[in-house]
Design brief:
Radius of gyration: 20 Å
Structural class: alpha/beta
Number of domains: 2
CATH class of the largest domain: Alpha Beta
CATH superfamily of the largest domain: Glucose-6-phosphate isomerase like protein, domain 1
Largest sheet: 5 strands, parallel
Distance between the termini: 50 Å
Number of helices: 11
Order of helices and strands: HHHHHHHHEHEEHEEEEH
CATH architecture of the largest domain: 3-Layer(aba) Sandwich
Strand content: 5-15%
Number of strands: 7
Shape: globular
Length: 272
Amino acid sequence: MPRETPSDPPATVEAFRERLMALSGTLPRRLQQCADHLAGHLDQIALSTVAQIARGAGVPPSAMMRFCQIMGFSGYAEMQRLFREALSTAPPDYATRLANLKGAGHPATLVAEFVEAGRQSMEALARDLDETALNQAVETLSRARAIHLAGFRRSFPVASYLAYVLDKLGLPAILHDGVAGLGQRTILQPGDALLAITFAPYSDETLALAREARARGLPVVLLTDPPATRLAGLGDTILTVTEIDFGAFRSLSAVIALALSLAVAVAARRET
């Protein structure tokens, strides 16, 4: 049976994710279907009706309404309000970011600002690095027959750079680039490992590949931003890195440094 209904609904989308994870595995079948569907489709809640969400989960609307109550909401409308408010405060699109960017007309000023953001990101990485998780990731990847790399959208430069570095280091690596919509899931083989890079609000393609790898028994190392609570059950090892933004633009300074360190450490471990 599900746990007792919380007295107060989650106040943020992140708190919603945490409560969703806490309830997972404690629910009857239909309510678990609701939880599983919502976990993978949080971006649809703000603009979808309860009937549409229920249809996607394969349950009647009444089951979805019951699930909302278990999450602490009075009903679907209150749950949807949380996501609509979050949508209204979502990061601006790139045209808006550019229009609001201070110093956009002075290239040298932009360089200075992005260098400063990168410096802060690097300092945060050195200060907050989880050495235990890093060692676990190195051990996992060094034992792999082949390392699969997945990173889409903003994460793709990291994944593609890792593919280049690992190849130069003589390590078998396979880049999942999603060209032509090909998932390349069938090339996940026993003895392989997946290194997946994704940042909130997370890439559906990357999460799907990580789930497939877990289903096939492959170890998964995730490289993401904190707090990564939604990803807790998806990776065997989770490495987090914070990137400081300037004008809502985020560089990849710290994550590239961590990725390069990881690749070199894996190569060194395989040599011993």
